[in-house]
Amino acid sequence: MDNQQIARIDRYTCKFENSVMEDQFMSGEWSRLKKALNFGFAFISLVMFLDFFEAYQRMGGFKSIQLGFLVILGLIAFFYSRTETFKSKYFSTYLTALFCGIHTFMMIQGFTGEEAMDVKESLSSMPTVFMFIGILFPLNFINTLICLLYLIITVVPMLPFSELDPAMLIFSIPIPVILLVWNKYRTEYNNRLNFAKTVSIDQTKNLMQKTLKRYFGDVLSDKMLKEDGSISGENKWVTLSFTDISSYSTIIEHMSPKVAVEFLNEYFTAMHDVIEEHGGHILNYIGDCMMVVFGAPEEMDNHENQAIKCAIKMREKLVEMNTKWDESELSRYWSNHGIEKITARTGIHTGSIIAGNIGSERMLQYSAIGDVVNVASRLEQANKEFGTDIAFSKEIYTALTKELNSAAKSEGSINLKGRDGETQVYSI
């Protein structure tokens, strides 16, 4: 069911055809009106009590019909106060019953009182009563009609038509009723249209946020929305890592595209959970390689240590995944080519980068540029030479905690392409 069907409004009742949508609208109306309605309920209860007390003093006791009305009013009040859900769904119905009940009581009081009811005076006040019901009283369209019809049915039969001016009758009842019914209908209809538009906008916004988070992660998507999609370049001291699957080409050589994508998605999903757990942000997927930053777009303390802990956890997670793959058909794609298990290589370096939206005006990507990126990438490749799976620079080593520092070991020096002098390489 699409949004247009869900938001469809019945032209006769002025209610949403979808019951869930209608309940949401009424809940919103209740949230907006409940303070005023609760106050009104308390005020009316006080007035009714005083009126009954006065009637008791004047008449010498309650008549059975008055007592019955009091019982009904009490029951309505009892159910009205039971639950928040009840009130949010049925407050308009409750107000309708309350209005009709009070009107009935006032009619009884008028007929049984010592003074006769002044018909002309009552008739002249009808437009004010109609206006109260149609505009000020927070009823929905159907309940407004019920109140108006009830008022007309109880009042019109008592009118001495032969003694009344026809113009007075027309301007006291038909014209006010027609105008107020039309006004109420349009107001109610437009209120629901505006509500439906608001819901649609909220749904679109939520979908956009969900989509952005799926492609860019929670932190970056929130930053993009906050800054209207424009993230200017900024200098940041961060830690970068590159993680690549070993022998990737051989692994997927005989896989169908569908299986290859499923394999990569399963691997990336598991690694993403670990990276997110350690505060990392995936900048890019390059085939089977992940470029991850720690310390951007949000600042992070001890990002060097978090990057190392993340790499160790990813290695452990890959061991778990290999156990699972050994029991599935996937393992045959690489076991038949002499690969016993899936392994990965990670290179880690820290330093200053420029981070921000990079690309054309029509297509941007949050990325990082600087020497740190090149060194981390070269260190990932250096794992092949040293026979390691996690290689990192001296800058990382010196920033490690005592526990991680003692677990690390020096693998020697290497000349990295694009960098003068030798780079000390450490593993863990």
Could you walk me through the main structural features you see in this protein, from its secondary elements to its overall organization?
This protein is an alpha+beta fold and 428 residues long. The protein folds into 2 domains: 3-208, no CATH class; 218-427, 2-Layer Sandwich (Alpha-Beta Plaits). Helices cover 62% and strands 15% of the residues. A hairpin with a 6-residue loop joins strand 7 (409-415) and strand 8 (422-427). Helix 2 (19-59) packs parallel to helix 4 (84-112). The longest helix has 43 residues, at 174-216. It starts with a helix and ends with a strand. The model is unreliable at 113-117 (pLDDT under 50).
Give structural attributes.
428 residues, 8-stranded mixed beta sheet, Alpha-Beta Plaits
Radius of gyration: 38 Å
E-strand count? 8
Summing up helix and strand content along with how strands pair, one would put the structural category as alpha+beta
**What is the fold named in CATH at topology level of the largest domain?**
Alpha-Beta Plaits
Gist?
The protein is of the alpha+beta class. Helix content is 62%, strand content 15%. The chain has 17 helices and eight strands.
Protein topology:
Layout: H1 3-6, H2 19-59, H3 64-80, H4 84-112, H5 119-124, H6 126-136, H7 141-155, H8 166-172, H9 174-216, H10 218-226, E1 234-245, H11 248-252, H12 257-277, E2 281-286, E3 289-294, H13 303-326, H14 332-335, E4 344-359, E5 364-369, H15 371-386, E6 390-393, H16 394-399, H17 402-407, E7 409-415, E8 422-427
Parallel strand pairs: 4-6
Antiparallel strand pairs: 1-3, 1-4, 2-3, 4-5, 6-8, 7-8
